[in-house]
């Protein structure tokens, strides 16, 4: 019996979450997932106000305030005055933050790569098409 569309989406979501968890655990990296998630959000949706960033990252505003403070200290993000409302601040990823995010993604890719090493060319074509489709639905840039 062919899986339903809902089952296919569920399998995709569960599998991607599991794949990321496997990769993160294998790297031994201790940086919080919230840092990587926040940098990823800012990479595509910046600049954002603190409340917008907290909502996008699905954390409380006080949690995001602490996270932003730590990320500012690490030079991963920068804060500036909102030109539309001088009481507010905008948060953006810095070049250093973008570099760290790129390096982290490369580490994850190298870590997960061996799980797919035995795929044949046809399977790679299917995986490439599927990843391109998911990327197009989630506004993710496709890399070469």
The H/E string reads HHEHHEEHH
Number of helices: 6
Total number of strands: 3
Helix content: 55-70%
In terms of DSSP E residues, the strand content is 5-15%
Q: Extract low-pLDDT stretches.
A: none
Description:
The chain has 144 residues and is mostly helical. It contains 6 helices and 3 strands; from the N terminus they run H-H-E-H-H-E-E-H-H. The protein has a 3-stranded antiparallel β-sheet with strand order 1-3-2. Strand 2 and strand 3 form a beta hairpin. Helix 2 packs across helix 5 and helix 3 packs across helix 4.
Quick gist of this model?
The protein is mainly alpha-helical. It has 6 helices and 3 strands.
């Amino acid at each position: 019996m062919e899986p339903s569309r809902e089952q296919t989406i569920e399998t995709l979501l569960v599998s991607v979450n599991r794949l990321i968890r496997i990769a993160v655990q294998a790297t031994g990296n201790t940086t919080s997932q919230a840092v990587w998630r926040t940098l990823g959000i800012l990479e595509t949706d910046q600049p954002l106000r603190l409340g917008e960033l907290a909502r996008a990252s699905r954390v409380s505003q006080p949690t995001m305030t602490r996270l932003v403070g730590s990320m500012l200290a690490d030079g991963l993000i920068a804060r500036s005055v909102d030109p539309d409302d001088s009481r507010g601040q905008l948060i953006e990823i810095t070049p250093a933050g973008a570099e760290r995010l790129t390096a982290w993604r490369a580490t994850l890719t190298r870590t997960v790569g061996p799980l797919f090493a035995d795929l044949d060319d046809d399977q790679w074509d299917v995986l490439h098409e599927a990843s391109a489709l998911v990327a197009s639905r989630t506004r993710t840039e496709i890399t070469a």
